[in-house]
UniProtKB/TrEMBL annotation, chain A:
<dbReference type="InterPro" id="IPR003439">
    <property type="entry name" value="ABC_transporter-like_ATP-bd"/>
</dbReference>
<dbReference type="InterPro" id="IPR027417">
    <property type="entry name" value="P-loop_NTPase"/>
</dbReference>
<dbReference type="GO" id="GO:0016887">
    <property type="term" value="F:ATP hydrolysis activity"/>
</dbReference>
<protein>
    <submittedName>
        <fullName>Unannotated protein</fullName>
    </submittedName>
</protein>
<keyword id="KW-1003">Cell membrane</keyword>
<dbReference type="InterPro" id="IPR017871">
    <property type="entry name" value="ABC_transporter-like_CS"/>
</dbReference>
<keyword id="KW-0813">Transport</keyword>
<keyword id="KW-0547">Nucleotide-binding</keyword>
<keyword id="KW-0067">ATP-binding</keyword>
TrEMBL record, chain B:
<dbReference type="InterPro" id="IPR000412">
    <property type="entry name" value="ABC_2_transport"/>
</dbReference>
<feature type="domain" description="ABC transmembrane type-2">
    <location>
        <begin position="47"/>
        <end position="276"/>
    </location>
</feature>
<protein>
    <submittedName>
        <fullName>Unannotated protein</fullName>
    </submittedName>
</protein>
<feature type="transmembrane region" description="Helical">
    <location>
        <begin position="251"/>
        <end position="269"/>
    </location>
</feature>
<dbReference type="InterPro" id="IPR013525">
    <property type="entry name" value="ABC2_TM"/>
</dbReference>
<feature type="transmembrane region" description="Helical">
    <location>
        <begin position="139"/>
        <end position="157"/>
    </location>
</feature>
<dbReference type="GO" id="GO:0140359">
    <property type="term" value="F:ABC-type transporter activity"/>
</dbReference>
<dbReference type="GO" id="GO:0043190">
    <property type="term" value="C:ATP-binding cassette (ABC) transporter complex"/>
</dbReference>
<feature type="transmembrane region" description="Helical">
    <location>
        <begin position="198"/>
        <end position="216"/>
    </location>
</feature>
């Protein structure tokens, strides 16, 4: 296990980004500690990628303070970037080069020597499971393979902090689990992970700490378990009555749980024992078309905080 | 030394730049861009490469030999020369311009907008000036190759009467440097392929009126002054001075003209790349 460090590697204070007159990131404060894995969660347009770009010292902030590894990107952005591995939301691999060349030349951009890069490229081709495709041009790869290559490329300089903007979007379930496993291993080696995601299970699995963003602001912060405990109940009962009957049925359901959330297609009842509530509802003669008992998740936290679902 | 380089981390490499001039925009590594260009070039078609060389030679064959019987011998600064010897430097200068503009506009535009290749580069410790210098450096290497090829083809026909003509090769590189460094900055403003067409729209009249195929003396004085202030006319005058061996003080002016264009262009391009990718 990595030793829990209190060393802060990234500190943002009143961090703000304005595009024209649109405020994309609205004066946020947060800290990332060494060796932790830190998640940014939020719906489309929340400002996650913008925050990531500022943290990766590839985009200047508009206002506020930002320190990365004790350095200010306004003064030392190339030195900061040498410490980082960056996986952008959209793959930007070099289409004119082969898979292996993409890794090699990216290392050359950091000034790394051929002697270092030769074995490193092999290691990363194994990591990305792309040995068979090593001499193919990037266009010949599937979406998931491109993603894996982009992630592997981000590791070429042995980064201390790896920043992944939606790392597993476009990966099949098996590839996702393999990647999680790889990320866990990096974390064990002491690499600080910062990632954005739309997948709640990913955030719950991977992140020690999360900030939930919406409209450029931080809505909540904490470990997945703490957020769930704070903003949701232990269990959730999901009921469907058919699309036009939901609202009407909801009126009768008031009082069954701690709280009710009415979505267009279903009703969520937050409670401590969902089985018990379901039994009561059936006993009282209401007939949902389908019912589902589940644990509370970050999805529910998000719904509570913003009144919206995270995945549209 | 080699061992030391092998264990150097990206961080150690980047930290060596601290305190050096332009450390924010320059990592001292434009050659890695050239290396990238070589890798990409290996995987590309030779046809494109060949066309850059063939074009001026075709022009020369067509105009030089086709028109020379109609035009007869020309005089340049009092010397009598063949028509082909008159246009050869013009074509060399024009092809240096064309190659540099192609590399710094069409090629760069594509990488900027479609591949997002520059975004990836600038997420490393590489700086925008490395990128600009590397791309321009590659354009110059190509320009150099074409210029040498052109000279090898035309010299045996007696079209380069003076030994000064050898300097036309570095002159072509200088010209390409000027055009490429400005061209890349201009490209950063272009939003779509249609705007890219404007470049062709400017280049053709530049070629037709800058004194490639006939002397700018043919124009009224006022127009002549404007044309001669334009970069292609400067380029042609420079190369022509050299190939015909008519080197004089004015030749230095043409060189200075391109020196200013290069320095200005590099500042402009670096500034644009920064504001485009790092702001
Ligand atoms: N280059 C830009 N110019 C102008 N507006 C931008 C730019 N990039 C992002 N925005 C705007 O800023 C807001 C935040 O965008 P951002 O990409 O950070 O969101 P996100 O949380 O990453 O969303 P997603 O989940 O869709 O990736 C959006 O409203 C977006 O339209
Ligand atoms: Mg995003």
């Amino acid at each position: 296990m990595p030793t829990r460090s209190t060393e802060v590697v990234i500190a943002a204070h009143n961090l703000k980004k304005v595009y024209g007159d649109f405020v994309a990131v609205d004066s946020i404060d947060f800290k990332v500690r060494k060796g932790e894995s830190f998640g940014l969660l939020g719906p489309n347009g929340a400002g996650k990628s913008t925050t990531m770009r500022m943290m990766s010292a590839t985009m200047e902030r508009s206002e506020g303070e930002l320190m990365i590894l004790g350095l200010d990107p306004k003064q030392d952005s190339p030195q900061i970037r040498a410490h980082l591995g960056v996986v952008p939301q959209q793959d930007n691999l070099d289409g004119e080069l082969t898979v292996a060349e993409n890794l090699y030349i990216y290392g050359r951009y950091f000034g790394l020597s051929r002697a270092y890069l030769k074995p490193k490229v092999e290691e990363l081709l194994d990591f990305a499971q792309l040995q068979e495709k090593r001499n193919e041009k990037v266009e010949a790869l599937s979406g998931g393979m491109k993603r894996r290559l982009t992630i592997a490329r981000g590791l070429i300089n042995q980064p201390e902090i790896l920043m992944l903007d939606e790392p597993t979007t476009g990966l099949d379930p098996q590839a996702r689990h393999i990647l999680w496993d790889r990320l866990f291993r990096l974390k064990e080696e002491g690499v600080t992970l910062i990632l954005t995601t739309h997948y709640m299970d990913e955030a719950e699995q991977l992140c020690d700490r999360i900030i939930v963003m919406d409209n450029g602001r931080i809505m909540a912060e904490g470990s997945p378990a703490a957020l769930i405990a704070e903003y949701s109940s232990k269990e959730v009962l999901e009921l469907r009555f058919g699309s036009n009957k939901n609202a009407e049925s909801a009126k009768k359901l008031a009082g069954y749980g701690d709280r009710l959330e009415i979505l267009p297609d279903r009703i969520l009842i937050y409670c401590t024992d969902a089985e018990l509530v379901l039994e009561k509802i059936n006993h009282d003669g209401m007939k949902p078309l389908t019912s589902l008992v589940r644990r509370s998740s970050l999805e529910d936290v998000f719904l509570r905080l913003t009144g919206r679902t995270l995945v549209d | 030394m080699i061992l030391n380089a092998a264990v150097d981390s990206a961080i150690a490499i980047a930290e060596r730049r601290i305190g050096k001039p332009g450390e924010q925009v320059f990592a001292g590594r434009p050659y890695v861009m050239i290396q990238r260009a070589f890798l990409a070039f290996k995987g590309s078609s030779w046809f494109v490469v060949l066309s850059g060389f063939v074009e001026p030679v075709l022009y020369l064959a067509s105009f030089g030999y086709g028109l020379s019987s109609l035009v007869g011998p020309m005089t340049s600064s009092g010397d009598s020369i063949s028509y082909a010897a008159f246009i050869a430097p013009g074509l060399l200068a024009t092809s240096a311009m064309n190659g540099a503009i192609y590399d710094s506009t069409f090629n760069v535009f594509f990488k900027m907008h479609h591949g997002k290749v520059y975004n990836a580069m600038l997420a490393t410790s590489l700086g925008p000036l490395d990128v600009a210098m590397g791309e321009i450096g590659w354009a110059l290497l190509r320009g150099l190759t074409y210029a040498i090829g052109f000279m090898i083809v035309v010299a045996p026909f007696g079209l380069i009467p003076s030994i000064w003509g050898l300097l036309a090769i570095p002159a072509a590189v200088l010209i390409a440097f000027g055009f490429a460094s400005v061209g890349m900055g201009v490209t950063s403003y272009l939003k779509d392929f249609q705007q890219l067409e404007w470049i062709n729209f400017i280049m053709l009249p530049l070629f037709l009126f800058s004194g490639t195929l006939y002397s700018t003396d043919a124009f009224p004085r006022a127009l002549q002054i404007i044309i001669e202030a334009l970069p292609l006319a400067q380029a042609i005058a420079l190369v022509r001075d050299l190939t015909l061996g008519q080197v004089h003080l004015g030749t230095l002016w043409h060189i200075l003209y391109f020196a200013v264009m290069i320095v200005g262009g590099l500042f402009f391009t670096t500034h644009r790349l920064r504001s485009l990718f790092q702001k």
